[in-house]
Design a protein that fits this description.
mainly alpha, 12 helices, 0% strand
Length: 302
C-alpha cells in the first residue's frame, strides 16, 4: 500500500500548488470558472493523447478502457469532476477561497469514509478513523482565516453550499473511479473520465466574458494547471487509488492544503499563526498514521 500512498501524496502536493498559481492568474484578470474549464480541457486532451500513445500490447485486458457498467461509472465520474470544477470555482467568487477550500477539502474525506462501506464494501479500520479524526480538524485549523467570520449574507451561504456540493462531487468521483479501477487500467479510465467531464463543462464558457482574451492573458499558468496539476496529478492519483482503500486516499489528499499553506508562507510571505502550526502538526500526524500500517502492519489492514 506504501506505493499507492506515495503516488496519491505526490498528486496532492501538485494540487497544493494551484492556490499559488491562482494567486498569480488573478493578476491577469482570468475568471475562476474559466480556470476550471481550461484546466479540465487541457488535461483531457493530454490524457487522451497519452492513452492513445501508450504501448500496451494489443488485446491485453489491461490495455482496455472502461467497458460495460464501468462506462457508466466513468461517465458519472466525469460529470462529478465537471460539477466539482463548476461548483468550486463559482463558490470561490461568492465566499472566498479560504472558506471554500475549508468546506470542500474537509468534507470530501468524511463523505468518502461514510459512503465507502456502502458503495465499495470498505470498512475503515481504527488507524484510518484515527487519521480522519486528526486530519480533518487539522485541515480546518490550517485553512481557516484567523479572526475571520461575520459575513452572514445570502451570497456567503450560497458559496458555502456550493463548496459543500464540490466536496460531495469530488467524493463521488473518488468512489466511482475506485469501483471502475477494479477492471480498468488507470490511464484509459482517467482519459475517458476527463474527456467526458471536459465536454460536460464546455457550456460554462457561455457564461464567461471574452474567454479567448482571458486565455491569451493567462495561458502559461493555465497550461501548467492543466498539464501538471490536473493531467499528471490525476493520472498518478488513479494509479495510487487502485492500490489503497478510498478512505485512505481521502486522508492522504489532505497533503494538498498543507502544501498550499507552506507555499503561501515561503513564497507570498503569509503568516502562520499558532492555530495553523497546530493544524499542520495534526495533518502530519494523520499522514504518519496512514503511512505507519502501510510499512509495518500486516497486508490488508488499514
Amino acid at each position: 500500500m506504501t506505493l499507492g500512498v506515495l503516488l496519491i501524496g505526490l498528486a496532492a502536493i501538485s494540487w497544493g500548488t494551484t492556490g499559488s498559481v491562482m494567486t498569480v492568474v488573478g493578476g491577469y484578470a482570468v475568471s475562476p470558472l474559466l480556470v476550471g474549464t481550461a484546466r479540465l480541457w487541457i488535461a483531457a486532451v493530454l490524457l487522451v493523447l497519452a492513452a492513445l500513445l501508450s504501448g500496451a500490447p494489443r488485446g491485453a485486458p489491461a490495455s482496455h478502457g472502461p467497458r460495460g457498467a464501468d462506462v457508466w461509472r466513468a461517465l458519472a465520474a466525469g460529470a462529478c469532476m465537471a460539477g466539482y470544477q463548476a461548483a468550486y470555482f463559482t463558490a470561490v467568487t461568492l465566499a472566498g477561497i479560504a472558506v471554500v477550500a475549508l468546506v470542500a477539502i474537509c468534507s470530501a474525506p468524511l463523505i468518502i469514509a461514510a459512503l465507502a462501506p456502502l458503495t465499495l464494501g470498505e470498512v475503515p479500520g481504527t488507524r484510518v478513523r484515527g487519521a480522519l479524526a486528526l486530519g480533518v480538524p487539522g485541515t480546518a485549523l490550517l485553512v481557516a482565516v484567523p479572526g475571520g467570520g461575520g459575513d452572514l449574507s445570502a451570497r456567503f451561504f450560497a458559496g458555502g453550499a456550493l463548496a459543500l456540493a464540490a466536496g460531495l462531487a469530488y467524493a463521488l468521483y473518488v468512489l466511482l473511479t475506485k469501483a471502475a479501477l477494479a477492471r480498468t487500467t488507470p490511464l484509459p479510465l482517467t482519459a475517458f473520465t476527463f474527456g467526458a467531464g471536459a465536454l460536460l463543462l464546455a457550456p460554462a464558457l457561455l457564461w464567461t466574458d471574452a474567454p479567448l482574451a482571458q486565455l491569451a492573458r493567462g495561458w502559461p499558468w493555465l497550461l501548467y494547471l492543466g498539464a501538471v496539476a490536473t493531467a499528471g496529478a490525476y493520472a498518478l492519483y488513479a494509479v495510487g487509488l487502485r492500490l489503497v482503500p478510498a478512505s485512505v486516499a481521502g486522508i492522504v489528499t489532505l497533503a494538498e492544503p498543507l502544501t498550499a499553506t507552506l507555499l503561501g508562507v515561503l513564497i507570498f510571505g503569509e503568516r502562520l499563526g499558532p492555530g495553523g502550526v497546530v493544524g499542520g502538526v495534526l495533518l502530519l500526524a494523520a499522514l504518519g498514521l496512514v503511512l505507519y500500517p502501510a510499512r509495518l502492519s500486516a497486508p490488508g489492514r488499514t
